[in-house]
Amino acid sequence: MIIPLCPLVPAILVFMAVIILSKAQRCGRYSWRKMLFPAFVFCFFAGPLSASVMSDRNALVFPDEEYHLQLDYGRSSGLNEDFYGEYTLVTGSGSLRFGLGLSEVDTDEGELFTRTFMVGGEGMVSDTMGLDFSYTSWGDPGDLTSDTFAAAVKWYGEHMVTSLTGSLRRISFFTFIDDPRDDRQSGTGNGIQGSVRYVGAGAWDVAAELSFYEYSLDMRQFDQRLSDTLLTNRALELGGGFLDTNYLFEVGYSIGDLRSAASWEYSTSAVDSMSSNTWTLQEQYESKTGRNIALLLGRALTADGAAFNFGRLSLGYRW
Residue 41 above 80 pLDDT? Predict the structure, then answer.
């Protein structure tokens, strides 16, 4: 009875680390920078020990060599639009990826455009453990920019992927648009995230994430300026949205080449402390020739009763 429970140990360790760190930080005892290093060291050694009993990981790690191209188009009920493209080179020992995105947000002051650039890579350091690094630049240099560096430790089991991610973010923005030279401010944001994906329940798969963030500035002073930006679904997803906490749970079911999934996400804004619930439904088809198409539909509801709908169409090709 002990062996079947071993794949769950990395997941338990990651979630315990995230929860303990968040509680300690909120009590004001430590900062993220002092806590991230021991957390990584703890999970670095404990995770692989529990994952070492897993043998077959072919379904969760890298093939010999592949190229992936993914194109996304998203739109929300506020007439906000976003485009994103990502290219990935996959080899037997790791992967390298590049992404470019553009979002258009309708605000009271007119249209606001944000741009995204991402570069990242992942490599295996053992049969069951990989390291992932990424840099994301987001925003509009005339209004708001965000530069995020993230590093993750991932453990690959027979049916499970577990990860622990730490991120450092540099934020720069203007509080007076008419004459931005008068009031340019900058600060930092740190975050930690734990995630688990399990694919060993037949046709079912389950995923969960926990994320916590802190900022060196009081983000609430920019409530009016940043609230519209937070409603951009792709900006949130790619690294622009300023969150305090985020929880995600997803369930998927596969039949042949077709996968259906439903998710629930709860988040709290660092700008106005407003909480929101988001529900999504996704249908994804991936053919044996490497082509895939996915359609996602979602609805978000904030604590004050505001709601908006959004959708995203994804087209991909693997060769």
Answer: no
Per DSSP, the three-state class of 290 is coil
What's the topology of domain 2-318?
Answer: Porin (2.40.160)
Of 85, 68, 106, give the one whose Cα is nearest residue 238: 85
Neighbours of 21 (CB within 10 A): 20
Question: Structure pTM?
Answer: 0.75
Query: For residue range 103-114, what is the model confidence (pLDDT) as tens digits?
Result: 887 766 567 788
Residue 36 clears pLDDT 50, i.e. is over it: no
pLDDT of residue 271: 77
3-state percent breakdown (helix, strand, coil) of the chain, nearest 5: 20, 55, 25
Which amino acid, one-letter code, is at 301? Answer: L
First to last CA, the chain: 42
> Are the beta carbons of 107 and 228 closer than 8 angstroms?
yes
Q: How far is residue 142's CA from residue 21's CA, in Å, rounded to a whole number?
A: 35
DSSP 61: S
Give the separation between CA 48 and CA 155, rounded to whole angstroms: 7
C-alpha distances out from residue 284 to 25, 47, 160, 199, 314, Å: 39, 31, 20, 16, 9
User: Domain-by-domain residue ranges, the chain?
Assistant: 2-318
Q: Which residue, 309, 50, 32, is CA-closest to 196?
A: 50
Query: CA-CA distances (angstroms) from residue 295 to 77, 163, 287, 312?
Result: 16, 26, 15, 6
Name which of 259, 262, 235 is nearest 251 in CA terms.
262
List, for residues 206-223, the tens digit of each pLDDT value: 999 999 999 987 776 666
Could you tell me if 66 and 318 are in contact, meaning their C-beta atoms sit under 8 angstroms apart?
yes
* Percent of the chain whose predicted confidence (pLDDT) is above 90: 45
Round to whole Å and give the CA distance between 162 and 7.
10
Q: CA dist 152 to 123, 133, 139, 167, 196, Å?
A: 11, 6, 23, 9, 13
Looking at residue 315, its amino acid is L
Provide the token pair at 245: 């906490």
Q: What's the rounded mean pLDDT across residues 219-241?
A: 47
